[in-house]
Amino acid sequence: MIYFDNAATTAVIPEAAETVVRYMTEKYFNPSAMYHEGLSVKNDIERARAGILSRIGGAQGKLYFTSGGTESDNLAFFGTKKKKNSRIIISEAEHAAVYQSAMVLKQNGFDVCMAPVDAHGAVDTDAFKELLNENTSFVSVIHVSNETGAVNDIVKLAEITKRAAPGALFHSDGVQAGGKIRINLNGAPIDLYSLSAHKIGAPKGTGALYAAKNVHLNPVIVGGGQEGGVRSSTENTAGIMAFDAAFAACTEKLNESFSNVSFIHDYIRSALAFADDIKILSPESGSPYILSFCSGSVRGEVIEHAMEREGVLVGTGSACSSNKATRRIPEALKLKGGYAEGIVRLSFSRFSTPGEAEAFVVKFKKVYEELKSHVG
């Protein structure tokens, strides 16, 4: 099997799996317990917290562990204080967790505005500037698009935000960036940053929200006061420690992995030129871990299932919204006609190989030509 849907989830790497087993069978103690074993586990969690903070250049801020990227995005939106009826700005191509959070705020009276994106999914900076005003209280722009891999210059966008609305908070969903591209929040005007464990080789069910030094968060989940009172519930120690182990492994191989994935991305990108009705959606300057394209003749879902029969797993966009009838992203990317329904997303991991890329191209060409022969 060739697995090219790593933006949806990844296989758990051995380092993370071994860590999970250890903290489920040996160091399974409750971190809130006052005896030695519990305190030892609590110290391990703090070590993991410091480790992840160091890898994103956020040592001056705080890191709160959550159940995943979605909860982290929710906490950023609902755990921060915002002036009533103030302006909230998100990009048109945000992940569903950000978009739906913004829609809840809109229902509660906030002035929610969508910043347009270009045909590759990156925010239009000039249009973004036009939306900012003194009444803006919160901005959220995805770091790496989960749909196309477009990389937004979040530092520049945050600086623009702070000049126009000094009191506004700037959040970024970094789920597709963590462990794949270099992140440095040190000195950056980024107030909040979301991460997820299962996108980089750790188990599902763990994420984190970075908060800058002076950012105050009110709890969305209340109870025993864990995570500094911001996120109650007994800590998922095994998940947290595996997250740290996976992030460390990714960071150690960051340059090597980036080079390998870039080769795979470019090889397939060039090979797709065989079909004149295929448009590449991913920008050349984006994250190589995601390569999205669309067909003007064949629906993405049809391609997905046809490739599955060939032993190749690909996606058609965010797995979090694939079961919903939505045209939000195609409309944001300004896709017309059949192209709006012909989106296919390939996403790679550091373990993807050039051999898999070659096999994909051979299989895809055969499948695509067969599917096109049945169209019209």
In a few lines, what is going on in this structure?
With 376 residues, the protein is of the alpha/beta class. It contains 11 helices and 12 strands.
Helix tally equals 11
Order of helices and strands: EHHEHEHEHEHEEEHHEEHEHEH
What's the CATH H-level superfamily name of the largest domain?
A: Type I PLP-dependent aspartate aminotransferase-like (Major domain)
Question: Can you name the CATH architecture of the largest domain?
Answer: 3-Layer(aba) Sandwich
Question: Could you explain how this protein is built, in words?
Answer:
By secondary structure, this protein is of the alpha/beta class. It folds into two domains: 2-9 and 254-367, Aspartate Aminotransferase, domain 1 (Alpha-Beta Complex), CATH 3.90.1150.10; 14-251, Type I PLP-dependent aspartate aminotransferase-like (Major domain) (Aspartate Aminotransferase, domain 2, 3-Layer(aba) Sandwich). It has helices at residues 14-25, 36-55, 69-78, 96-107, 125-131, 154-164, 237-252, 254-271, 300-309, 328-332, 354-373, and strands at residues 2-3, 62-66, 87-91, 111-115, 136-140, 169-173, 192-196, 207-211, 278-280, 290-295, 312-313, 343-347. A seven-stranded mixed sheet has the order 2-8-7-6-5-3-4, sandwiched between helices. The protein has a three-stranded antiparallel sheet with strand order 9-10-12. Strands 1-11 form a two-stranded parallel ribbon. Strand 5 (136-140), helix 6 and strand 6 form a beta-alpha-beta unit. The longest helix has 20 residues, at 36-55. It is globular. The mean pLDDT is 96.
